[in-house]
Design brief:
Layout lengths: L1 H21 L33 E3 L1 H7 L21 H15 L8 E6 L6 H21 L7 E7 L8 H7 L2 E5 L11
Parallel strand pairs: 1-4, 2-3
Antiparallel strand pairs: 2-4
Helix pairs in contact: 2-3, 3-4
């Protein structure tokens, strides 16, 4: 029996040594598994349409008579979609117009304010939006010294709109500021 026991122990020896060395403390650990990070696709939004700095279109004869220069957007006025808010440039420009018609070269003259909208929306909605815009300009001018009697406000809504995309619709969203023409006196016959 000892002989058999010796054979079994001798046969198990290499197996025990192999298993023992495999569990040795100096063996390197398995490489760590790097987590896989999800990277969301980058979606680039289209660039917004250029935004002129004023929404007020003051007629050239007013600008000339009042000596107003440096009109930031010239003939490219803009209100944001569904907005009647005035920018700082709008307020500066309207302040100069109010001064000119209050105490300057056009003192006592009357202005016609025409609110406009782009063609999106119903006719009734666009009329109200144009009216809100013109009323906002009228209120600003009155607050800066112009008499309500010298201001005429109306809305054309989208009746004269010509735009067909965002870049051209922004030209439709404005308030036109024009001088009311003085009546020509009729000469009397003797």
């Amino acid at each position: 029996m000892t002989r058999m026991y010796s054979r079994v122990v001798a046969g198990l020896g290499p197996i025990v040594l192999t298993l023992g060395t495999g569990c040795h403390a100096d063996a390197p650990p398995p490489p760590p598994v790097a987590p896989v990070a999800y990277v969301a696709p980058v979606v680039v939004a289209p660039a917004p349409a250029p935004v002129p700095s004023t929404v007020i279109h003051v007629a050239a004869d007013i600008l000339t008579a009042c000596g107003i220069q440096d009109v930031p957007s010239g003939k490219s006025p803009l209100f944001a979609f569904d907005s009647a808010a005035l920018s700082a440039d709008d307020q500066r420009l309207l302040g100069e117009v109010a001064t000119c018609l209050g105490t300057g070269p056009l003192a006592g003259r009357t202005l016609k304010l025409t609110g406009r909208a782009d063609p999106r929306g119903t006719q009734a909605y666009n009329e109200r939006l144009g009216d809100r815009r013109a009323t906002r300009v009228q209120g600003y001018l009155e607050h800066h010294g112009m008499s309500a009697a010298n201001l005429s406000e109306t809305s054309r809504g989208a009746l004269d709109a010509t735009g067909n995309d965002e870049n051209s619709w922004m030209l439709d969203r404005r308030v036109d500021v024009d001088l009311v023409k003085r009546p020509v006196p009729v000469a009397s016959t003797p």
